[in-house]
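tool=predict chain=A
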Amino acid sequence: MLNPSFSTSRTEIAEKVRHLRKERGLTQQDLASELGLSQNRYSEIERGKGSFSAEQFLAILRLFNVPVSHFAEGPAGSPDALQNALARHGAAHLNEDPTLVPSERLARVEDAIRETLVDAGSSRQITALATVLAQHIEQVNLTKVWSEFVKLGLERRFAWLLEGTRDALLEELEGPLPRRQAQGYRKAEWALSEFLERVAVRALPAEAPALLDPLSATILSRKTREELEQGASPVCRKWAILTSIQPEDFVQALRASHVAD
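tool=predict ok
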């Protein structure tokens, strides 16, 4: 089971799934079919007598378009904890709450990247990952993180983030930058480009699926989804990501963090 936090019980998760199911107007049989379960087995899990597998939990997140933090309890899964971690990892433009005890789960750069992208609760935090990658590319084992996202079925999110960051770095390198900053950006750009070419692009099927992976903290209406699909950037279409985040947002995050240093 993919637990959102150590303090969230399976009964609490099941109750929240039941609420989402009823809110969407789905029967137990409807959701059981979506998850590849029998109605009887699903009913047992909803009553707290079992757990969803990691794959089933991720399917629930996609189906109801909610972040992991929707199910999490406590500071480790809170948006404030993620924001504090990102600020400490180089996203200087994000406000840090000094009263919040640092989460050990987010102490490593790789963990903060994974939690932020899986949670997908804040566009500002997601775009701040460009700054974190640019500053800590030597500390991030891209192959390892990629394999973790593959297991979660979210590798397209990671590839989308890497390409968006790479493109933002290339745009910034076209203008005047302090020497040290330019050197860091070139190193990060090269590492991201090499990884995308060596690993990520090879994982792409011949045809990209419909935009079925929404990066949003709220359940989207059909109208909103259609509007996002129509305005999707090329990189979003390439990796099948549905989001209001545009390539320029990654550029702005890099610039904002540099100004806030």
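The chain is about 60% helix and 0% strand. The two ends are 40 Å apart (CA to CA).
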